UniProtKB/TrEMBL annotation:
PROSITE patterns: ROK. It holds the Pfam family HTH_24. It comes from Bosea caraganae. This is ROK family transcriptional regulator. InterPro entries: ATPase_NBD, ROK, ROK_cs, WH-like_DNA-bd_sf, WH_DNA-bd_sf. Belongs to the ROK (NagC/XylR) family. PANTHER family: BIFUNCTIONAL UDP-N-ACETYLGLUCOSAMINE 2-EPIMERASE_N-ACETYLMANNOSAMINE KINASE, ROK (REPRESSOR, ORF, KINASE) FAMILY.
Length: 403
């Protein structure tokens, strides 16, 4: 006999995630406030808080004095309750960041890689992770997992397409499993734009949003979509190719075969080539500093790029609004904050779209995570996987008992 339906274990996991998400977003909170915010029974809340406290995930931060009775104990996420690694690999530059579950950066290492061979890169990642654990005195058992982002599309653990760079030998590599074997830690893989969107949803500009589009300005242009509080990857895992929205019919040729794609006007690679025609597609932090300096000195070459990028982004944002009706569009990526601010200033005011009727939320919002966005977004993957409630957990048709 099979008992099918909403497995109680899934319901418990869902409730734990609801409580964690509520504390993360609204802390500090008392148990009574968590009960009111979640709608769960007081005894359920007490049981979950006891479990989370024993696991070291939540902590008491202070006691709030009230008019009557014992002061309420307030709860918050315990930063030392867990740790994650974010790994970003692009254009021969490896960035590894160690964060705690509250989003604090504990360590950061950036490395220029002499070899792009898969084994060499994966070995370097494993060695760097081990060194950081030792340096920060973090037990491996406290690590929730490792997030890895590459500017590529993945399907069934394999690279399907690469962005601005070609990596011979990587396309047929079972990347997640290969890295997991070396690290002996859970590994999650995502493209850079979706990882950045998840990071903004957890800790940045998307914290109060459930439906938004993220435009990632990097070597190319990527996109991440959040619908009903969950990242949307599409039927084949390839959603968010915002860089190939055509914003100039018959315009500049694109590698995708079309002409006039957004990516051919608004990428950081083009900003750098505007400053130096011989610049290659490799982007390092020194290059981002150069863009910021060009803005500070009002370099006309950068200002021309800003104007072109803003014109194309303005059209793309209205297209996204009309298609998806998001609460807002978050614009970010690796651009330095002053350059991002200047770009948004040129995009505004936006033409009217069908969905542009909400005066409470700006239509375009600057991302908050900064130039380390790829690695920071990667580090949020295990946290999002462990904290954010997903309704599908309640509807898994698992066998719960066999007689």
């Amino acid at each position: 006999m099979k008992l099918l339906g909403a497995n109680m274990d899934h319901a418990k996991r869902f409730n734990r995630r609801v409580v964690l998400e509520t504390i993360r977003l609204q802390a500090p909170l008392s148990r009574a406030e968590i009960t009111r915010a979640t709608g769960l029974a007081p005894q359920t809340i007490s049981n979950i808080i006891a479990e989370l406290s024993e696991a070291g995930l939540v902590r008491s931060v202070n006691r709030r004095s009230g008019a009557r009775g014992q002061p309420a104990v307030e709860l918050d996420i315990n930063p030392d309750g867990g740790f994650t690694f974010g790994v970003s690999f692009s254009h021969g530059v490896l960035l590894v960041i160690l964060t705690d579950v509250a989003g604090g950066v504990r360590d950061r290492v950036e490395i220029d890689l002499p070899s792009l061979a898969p084994d060499a890169v994966l070995d370097r990642i494993a060695r760097t992770v081990a060194e950081m654990l030792t340096r920060q005195n973090v037990a491996r058992s406290r690590v929730w997992g490792v997030g890895l982002v590459i500017p590529a599309i993945f399907q069934d653990d394999h690279l399907v397409a690469l962005g601005e760079t070609a990596l011979p030998g990587w396309k047929d590599l079972p990347l997640r499993q290969s890295l997991q074997n070396k690290l002996e830690l859970p590994v999650l893989i995502e493209n850079d734009a979706t990882a950045a969107a998840i990071g903004e949803r957890l800790y940045g500009a998307g914290k109060s949003l459930t439906d938004f589009a993220y435009i990632y300005v990097g070597a190319g242009i990527g996109g991440g979509l959040f619908l009903r509080g969950q990242p949307y990857r599409g039927g084949y895992g390839k959603s968010g190719e915002i860089g190939h929205l055509v914003t100039d019919t018959g315009g500049r040729p694109c590698t995708c075969g079309n002409r006039g794609c957004l990516e051919r006007y608004a990428s950081v690679s083009l900003a750098l080539k505007a400053l130096d025609e011989s610049h290659e597609d490799v982007i390092r932090h020194d290059d981002l500093d150069r863009i910021a300096a060009a803005l500070a000195s009002a370099d006309p070459r950068l200002l021309t790029w800003l104007d072109e990028a803003a014109a194309s982004l303005r059209q793309a944002i209205v297209m996204i609004e009309n298609m998806l009706d998001p609460q807002a569009v978050v614009l970010g990526g690796v651009l330095p904050q002053p350059v991002l601010t200047a770009l948004i200033a040129r995009i505004l005011p936006l033409p009217r779209s069908v969905s542009s009727n909400n005066e409470d939320t700006p239509r375009i919002i600057a991302a908050e995570m900064g130039p380390d966005t790829p690695a920071l977004g990667a580090a949020t993957l295990p946290v999002f996987d462990g904290m954010s409630p997903e309704l599908s957990l309640l509807f898994k048709q698992d066998v719960v008992e066999r007689i």
